[in-house]
Amino acid sequence: MSSRCRATDRIAIGLLILVTLVACERERRDVDPRVQASPEEATPVSTLNPGKDTAVPIHTSNGATFEQNAYHINEGQRLYRWFNCTGCHANGGGDIGPALMDAEWRYGGEIEQIYASIAQGRPNGMPMFQGKIPDAQIWQIAAYVRSLSGNTPKSATPSRGETISATPPLTRTPKQPPTNADSAANPQPPP
């Protein structure tokens, strides 16, 4: 009887170790993420372009790396508060700065475009943060901002914050596909 219990205990311990080793990437805490340099000038931020439409959207692995990891999104939430983004954007609903929880994005709602807006700044109030904070932190804030409108994978969105909050978790946020504010104001008739 005792040998049967030992065998069962060994199997249970082995399964526990296996489950621990195969844990998902969702909560992988990469505290010093390596960011690939990307040409921000190639990221389109508006449909308004002089001359030909030559802007080509770039999709680096940075966006996917940060957008699909709950730890980075959660860190972005913390940094969003630390850098006082709430002073202009409130908790995403907008105040003197634009709302970040709806489907309308003036400079683009893709993570690369959000990164460019944070890094380069925007006219009429958005300061430039490139060179002031590390690129990895800008990517984390961009991932959090994108999650506010429900556009991150539910599997990567943190189901709980690191702090006490009266708002529902990000996994309960309805998806708001981004639309460009320029195209929403001037709808183009179908060809």
Give the topology, please.
Blueprint: H1 2-21, H2 61-67, H3 70-82, H4 86-89, E1 104-105, H5 111-120, H6 135-148, E2 179-180, H7 181-185
Parallel strand pairs: 1-2
Give a description of the structure.
- By secondary structure, this protein is mainly alpha-helical.
- The chain has a domain at about 60-185: Cytochrome Bc1 Complex, Chain D, domain 2.
- Helix content is about 40%, strand content about 0%.
- It has seven helices and two strands, in the order ααααβααβα.
- The longest helix has 20 residues, at about 1-20.
- It is elongated and about 75 Å long.
- Residues about 50-55 have low confidence and may be disordered.
Query: Ends: how far apart?
Result: 79 Å
CA radius of gyration: 21 Å
CATH topology of the domain at 58-185: Cytochrome Bc1 Complex, Chain D, domain 2
- What profile does the largest beta sheet have? 2 strands, parallel
Based on the structure given, which CATH architecture of the domain at 58-185 is correct?
Orthogonal Bundle
| Strand-pairing-aware structural class | mainly alpha
